[in-house]
Design a protein that fits this description.
282 residues; alpha+beta; D-Maltodextrin-Binding Protein, domain 2; 2 domains; five-stranded mixed sheet; 14 strands; globular
């Protein structure tokens, strides 16, 4: 799974950065497994942008752990994290300490720690660790993607009507209503829709062929920085509005802050279906 990293290593090769991301993500997953369940600790849960946007003491503890380990292994390299923030323009590392915090809070196993190495704003390596399942996903730019060391490849789907599509919902109730209308319009025209609750893992699932496509609005950089590379390196068509393969100011008709990934055989058709279903208005 992970590769031990020489603490003195300072190279910028994607293989070196990938090894660092793998090691720190795996260590952070072990650290998280040792923390108390947040619902059992008074004052361990608070909210951010809305009452449904939760943050736990574990989120902050894991981010501190990741920052400390990166400072040891990669001294002086700036970190941009969900809980501790940082400078977007200079970031070398982008960290989501717990992607899927609500799942983690409720004891659902679909949550992860996401660590990406970036160069000029573009992800060149990344790792996504699942503390509950023990899986470790990773990718390096032009190096392919793996899960627990096994190479990944997207589904060979060619029929959008038989596609399993992942999605997610925002924290604001008004936007959730618009997202629900889009999903309701898409649902009769695909095999089914899944809302698992962790964007990084949904993107990895596309890379593994567990999902044929994934579409979500409102994701942040830390949500997709590592997972999008896993999906792309596994062969998926990936578009991030405002990010790599930018679709333009309106997300190519999919929305100004869309994250989209799909198997090549159905990507064009699923994007067109999302447009017809009102994605741009979400």
């Amino acid at each position: 799974m992970s590769t031990h990293v020489d603490p003195g290593s300072t190279g910028t090769d994607p293989d070196v950065l990938r090894a660092v991301a793998e090691q720190v993500a795996a260590e952070a997953a072990e650290h998280l497994r040792g923390l108390s369940a947040p619902r059992s600790v008074e004052g361990a849960v608070s909210t951010k942008s809305s009452p449904t946007d939760v943050v736990t003491a574990s989120d902050a503890a894991v981010e501190r752990f990741v920052r400390d380990r990166l400072a040891e292994l990669r001294p002086g390299e700036p970190v941009y994290g969900e809980e501790g923030s940082g400078d977007v323009s200079t970031a070398r590392w982008v960290v989501d300490p717990i992607d899927g915090t609500v799942n983690y809070l409720y004891g659902l196993p679909w949550y992860a720690i996401s660590i990406a190495a970036v160069e000029d704003g573009r992800t060149v390596a990344g790792a996504v660790a699942e503390p509950a399942a023990g899986r470790l996903w990773s990718a390096g730019l032009a190096r392919g993607a793996t899960c627990d060391g096994a190479p990944l490849a997207v589904a060979r789907s060619t029929d959008p009507s038989l596609s399993l599509v992942g999605t997610g919902f925002a924290y604001r109730s008004d936007r959730r209503a618009r997202q629900a209308r889009m999903v309701a319009a898409m649902l009769p025209q695909v095999r089914d829709v899944r809302r698992a609750g962790a964007a990084a893992l949904d993107l990895c699932a596309v890379g593994a062929g567990w999902l044929d496509g994934y579409l979500e609005h409102g994701c942040n950089w830390w949500d997709w920085a590592a997972g999008a590379l896993v999906a792309r390196e596994a062969g998926a068509v990936v578009h991030i509005a405002g990010g790599p393969a930018d679709l333009g100011p309106d997300g190519g008709g999919l929305g100004a802050d869309v994250t989209f990934a799909a198997a090549p055989g159905v990507a064009q058709e699923l994007a067109a279906l999302a447009r017809r279903s009102g994605a741009a208005e979400v």
